[in-house]
């Protein structure tokens, strides 16, 4: 039920702090250790490389997962678009382990890959929101997102739930393998900070509603730029804006923009710069200056520790690897308001279905 909400998308955006808390309750013990099936951890521990396979928003959650697995647990991780992997698989390592990320558990492109993986005889895990879904039944192991039904076609809370559960899994894996960076990672504490930060952001929706009106009312195209996890987030933010508002939007690595795409910047083109990483903040700011010099209208979304004067949205501080969990919130709200202000049905964008069951 959407209750007092005009659209499910807004309700589902607002539910995200609660989803973080539910995941902590479901998967983390009082003492901070993680409750995950030992058999799954044993199988994961034997792998020499992880292959995350997914589509759309779930693929974008996989991009953040790669950072978590590699930086905190030191296991090489590849992320693949399911429809590409299906008919053009990469060379696999000797002991691969497959992770399927899927809100619905029914995406045909991912099912095609899992069928192949099962034929090869490799172990797999499906991370999904739907118990007993096809991908859950056909994989060796399943972890549930516990995000509650996601009705809006545009995925919001499933994205944040997937990243949070990846972080929890990384913690468990790191404990099992005795890896210091993962052992030192207080996943419950960090996700609680995230939940509080998300709450601050959803409580300030009015700011985003106004930015949508001021910067995006009539634009036909837009860009998101960032580096590292901010680039991963830029890709998700762009998908969200384009699918519900039909504004042609691309997410770019900010350093790559000058290698061609900058030719598209015109007077008034909206560019959203996501800046959360101190290592690259100055670089992304200088890329933003390059587009400002060509007439772009830049919206800066930055975390408190790297914020500069004049930045319009300041994000609460969280662990840098988890920053997409908070930076995504204003981008989801922006997509919602741009769509609403243009008079579209936000929950049911044209040409799209909630789960894509054809290849
Ligand atoms: O159910 P899945 O997570 O497997 O779905 C994958 C994509 O179809 C899905 O994320 C799609 O991109 C959404 N409309 C994005 O908002």
From TrEMBL:
Compartment annotation: Cytoplasm
Catalytic function, reaction form: D-fructose 6-phosphate + L-glutamine = D-glucosamine 6-phosphate + L-glutamate
Keyword check for Membrane: no
One GO-annotated biological process of the protein: fructose 6-phosphate metabolic process
One GO molecular-function entry: carbohydrate derivative binding
Subunit annotation: Homodimer.
Protein name per UniProt: Glutamine--fructose-6-phosphate aminotransferase [isomerizing]
Gene: glmS
